[in-house]
Amino acid sequence: MIRISGYRNDFVATKIGLSLASFTSKLKNDNFSVREVLKIISIVKSEKVEDFLLLEIMKSRKDEATISLQQLEKEMGWLSL
């Protein structure tokens, strides 16, 4: 997410109260606390990041079965306009 957001690691590290060395170590070892992750998300959250994450979700589900809009409307009991 940080890479996609365009923010530099030193900026994010400073914003969450870590030295760049500590931040880099935590990033390398995937060792952030929940509180740190929430802070990072609040800093880097943007439409660009959300679009990237949605695309990743869509890619991960590309082989799942799908139905048409008409079928969904029928199953849900919705009326088509």
Question: Your description of this structure?
Answer:
- By secondary structure, the chain is an all-alpha fold.
- The protein has one domain (about 1-75): 434 Repressor (Amino-terminal Domain) (Orthogonal Bundle), CATH 1.10.260.
- Helix content is about 65%, strand content about 0%.
- It has 6 helices and no strands.
- α2 crosses α3.
- The longest helix is centred in the middle third of the chain and has 14 residues, at about 45-60.
- The radius of gyration is 19 Å and the shape is elongated.
- The termini are far apart.
- The model has no long low-confidence stretch (mean pLDDT about 90).
- It comes from Dyadobacter subterraneus.
- This is XRE family transcriptional regulator.
Name some characteristics of this structure.
81 residues; mainly alpha; 434 Repressor (Amino-terminal Domain); 6 helices; 0% strand; elongated; XRE family transcriptional regulator
Radius of gyration: 19 Å
- Shape descriptor reads elongated
Query: At CATH's second level, what is the architecture?
Result: Orthogonal Bundle
Question: Largest sheet, described in full?
Answer: none
Binned strand content = under 5%
Structural class: mainly alpha
Per DSSP E runs of 2 or more residues, the count of β-strands stands at 0
- Following the backbone from N to C, one meets helices and strands in this order, namely HHHHHH
Q: Count up the helices.
A: 6
Low-confidence stretches: none
Question: What would the CATH topology be?
Answer: 434 Repressor (Amino-terminal Domain)
User: How far apart, in Å, are the first and last alpha carbons?
Assistant: 39 Å
**Helix residue percentage:** 55-70%
Indicate how many domains the architecture comprises.
1
Please report the first level of CATH classification, the CATH class: Mainly Alpha
Compute the average pLDDT: 90
